[in-house]
């Protein structure tokens, strides 16, 4: 519960800092003020989609809400990665770079069978390169669809709406490099 409270406190702090009241912020993310209040008090956990909308509205990277900024080492140990794990959604993100104060961000993403990164393809700023470490991936990139298997990679402008789906019969593990950071 401590992590959720800290998470919610950061959302509340940034919402107030940017001049949003609960109602305005809830409207901006397409949720009710009571839902947002519960998230801020650690009583509810937002979906990845809701969290993305909150971070976009506040102009902050998604990972900003997920960990405390502390003195960082250039080495990121496997067991010490900053992670966003969503068991209900069968998708996990782990930050492979020490923090978000760099020119690029590298993530390891694990998706369960049949799981997609988003409901509908979405764009964001920058460029992205993704390599398949394990499994089989379908990426919808604008009007095009590509199938990638272990060892394959794809490089694209992230301003093109995109969506990644695990189409294999085992979990999909990918590593993505994004510039600028913004997850």
Structure description:
The protein is α+β, with helices and mostly antiparallel strands and 183 residues long. The protein has two domains: 2-60, 434 Repressor (Amino-terminal Domain) (Orthogonal Bundle); 78-179, Jelly Rolls, CATH 2.60.120.10. Helix content is 23%, strand content 30%. It has helices at residues 2-17, 22-29, 33-40, 48-58; strands spanning 82-86, 91-95, 105-111, 127-134, 136-141, 144-149, 153-157, 162-166, 172-179. Strand 1 and strand 2 (91-95) form a beta hairpin. The model is unreliable at 1-5 (pLDDT under 50).
Fourth CATH level, the homologous superfamily of the largest domain? Jelly Rolls
The top level CATH class name of the largest domain: Mainly Beta
Approximately what portion of the residues adopt beta-strand conformation?
Answer: 25-35%
End-to-end Cα distance, whole Å, is 24 Å
Shape: globular
CATH topology of the largest domain: Jelly Rolls
Please give the order of strands in the largest beta sheet.
1-2-3-9-4-7
What average pLDDT do the residues reach? 86
Main beta-sheet strand count, sense and barrel state: 6 strands, antiparallel
Number of strands: 9
> What's the CATH architecture name of the largest domain?
Sandwich
């Amino acid at each position: 519960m401590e992590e959720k409270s800290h998470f919610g406190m950061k959302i509340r702090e940034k919402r107030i800092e940017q001049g949003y009241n609960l109602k305005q912020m809830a409207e901006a993310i397409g949720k009710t003020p009571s839902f947002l209040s519960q998230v801020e008090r650690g009583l509810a956990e937002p979906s990845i989609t809701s969290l993305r909308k909150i971070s976009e509205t506040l102009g902050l990277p998604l990972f900003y809400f997920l960990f405390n900024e502390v003195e960082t080492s250039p080495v990121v140990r496997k067991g010490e990665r900053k992670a966003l794990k969503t068991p209900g959604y069968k998708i996990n993100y782990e930050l492979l770079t020490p923090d978000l104060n760099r020119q690029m961000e590298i993530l390891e993403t694990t998706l369960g069978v049949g799981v997609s990164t988003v409901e509908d393809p979405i764009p964001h700023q920058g460029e992205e390169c993704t390599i398949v470490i394990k499994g089989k991936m379908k990426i919808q990139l604008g009007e095009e669809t590509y199938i990638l298997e272990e060892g394959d990679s794809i490089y694209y402008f992230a301003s093109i709406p995109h969506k990644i789906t695990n189409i294999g019969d085992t979990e999909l593990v990918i590593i993505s490099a994004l510039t600028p950071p913004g997850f």
